[in-house]
Sequence to fold (297 residues):
Amino acid sequence: MKIGLQVPSFTWPGGDAAIGPTLAGIAETADAVGFDSLWVMDHFYQIRGVGRPEEPMLEGWSALAFMAAHSKQATLGLMVGGVHYRQAGLWAKAATTLDVLSGGRSYLGIGAAWNEEESHGLGFPMPPLGERFEMLDETLQIVHAMWQGERGSGAAFSGRHYQAERLLNSPQVIAKPHPKILIGGGGEQKTLRLVAKYADACNIFGGPDQLTHKFSVLRERCAEIGRPFDEIERTNLGQVDVTQQTPAEILESFRSRAAVGVQHFIVSMTGVDDIRNIETMGRDVIQQVHAIEPKAI
Fold:
């Protein structure tokens, strides 16, 4: 089983000037102790449930590029990108840039988004949800075309939301056949259909019961288009606190996900700015996580 680290908050001791050095230490330590992946949210205001809108929030691609320079092995991705924040071709170029500069370690994490407050606050258009799903479908078509061959398909694209005259991508991605496309969300009629059609990975919220159901639906969506279900990496988000939980308790949360087919459990850590907590995960948890075999479903 794989283990990822999501960093959802940058409210750390030392204020704004300490964010860079602290994030560098987190990335370096997490990479060194064996985390398989590193993630940040794609938000511009801090979100409800994590903190106040006024709390520090970094732009996602820039933060990932910084973390790439402070890591060597872990893959890096947005959990997950809001499709309406960037034009379709820019999604492909940003993920390609991260992939090239990190030596083939990028994910393209993307979804239909939800946070109206930050969009309205900063002047981003916030189309209705149905339109955002159309934009997501077209964006994924464009990304796949730009990741074809040595320099992209070179073809034109004409959709309802995007028009492109030449889908050129130079340099081309290093990861083969391309960086994993991860779509976030568990909507059964639209999101999971897009996962089956375009994605290499999914991220679905919830505990074991909800995951069992959603994976079953995803299998149905794959069968509808004749795609092998096992081609899609199954990921899930959670939370750990090494200051309050024992290693056994933390490992049980991984085993419970693996038992329903989760292959990559991505966690936020309480006190992540104290690298001793990351070192504790490395010493007491990560090797045992890697020995867990996700259930074949």
The longest helix spans residues 129-146.
